[in-house]
Amino acid sequence: MARTPTPHNEAVAGQIAPFVLMPGDPLRAKRLAEAYLEGVEQFNGVRNMLGYTGTYQGSPVSVMGSGMGMPSIGIYSYELFNFYGVESIVRIGTAGGVAPSVRLRDIVLGMGACTDSNYAHQFNVPGTLAPIADFGLLRRAADAAERLGYPVRVGNVLSSDVFYNDDRTAEQRWAKMGVLAVEMESAALYLNAMRAHRRALTILTVTDVVSRGEALTAEERQESLTQMMEVALSLAKPEQVLRN
């Protein structure tokens, strides 16, 4: 484990839990920590990328912002995995629906993360590397969403480097390949986890479907984000092996 603190994280070894929730917005990280965790202590404020550690039903949990885009989450997740000994990172965020079957409020679990980014080129593999989620986290999240009665979809998401795309037909071409939703971070998170032999999963709430001109109101967004958080926090508890 490299020496800490880092240029981007002032935490010292032991201040960050093995399980980390990672929203994009650092202020959302603050709100989530205060709303869901007990005994909260702030461990990072460098560049206002806020990070907190507490407990959820007795399990240690950290919440830290990732910023927007793959370069940003690439830095923070790399350091968490490689410098702070984090075992699992669950990205919790919002997304735009792409597939015609996706509806507002759907919870999307990113089984894989297609991308238009060059982030994977650094690994110099002799082919195309597929960024994928950890199956154990994915399976548990799907089970939790179904148990709670929340609308859940499992499949490919698109991690794009471009928010305002000059090519207005791009999303349609991803949709025809079955991509469910578009966001901007998951591919880098998954690739970092794969390289570090750690675990990662993205859980998204669909807050808009541009092709149909639909979007959630602020109140509706909050209700849906609460559902997503319940699913994400269920993963903080140690996995139980059920025997007959």
UniProtKB/TrEMBL annotation:
Q: Recall the GO molecular function terms of this protein's record.
A: purine-nucleoside phosphorylase activity; uridine phosphorylase activity
The cross-references to InterPro entries, in alphabetical order and at most eight, read:
DeoD-type (IPR004402), Nucleoside_phosphorylase_CS (IPR018016), Nucleoside_phosphorylase_d (IPR000845), Nucleoside_phosphorylase_sf (IPR035994)
Protein name, UniProt field: Uridine phosphorylase
For this protein, the record's PANTHER family field holds: FI09636P-RELATED, URIDINE PHOSPHORYLASE
One GO BP annotation is:
uridine catabolic process
HAMAP family xrefs: Pur_nucleosid_phosp
Q: Which reaction does it catalyse?
A: uridine + phosphate = alpha-D-ribose 1-phosphate + uracil
Family classification: Belongs to the PNP/UDP phosphorylase family.
Q: Where is the Nucleoside phosphorylase domain?
A: 19-235
UniProt EC number: 2.4.2.3
Class of enzymatic activity (EC top level):
transferase
Q: What is the lineage of its organism?
A: Bacteria, Bacillati, Actinomycetota, Coriobacteriia, Coriobacteriales
| An annotated GO cellular component | cytosol
What keywords are annotated for this sequence in UniProt? Glycosyltransferase, Transferase
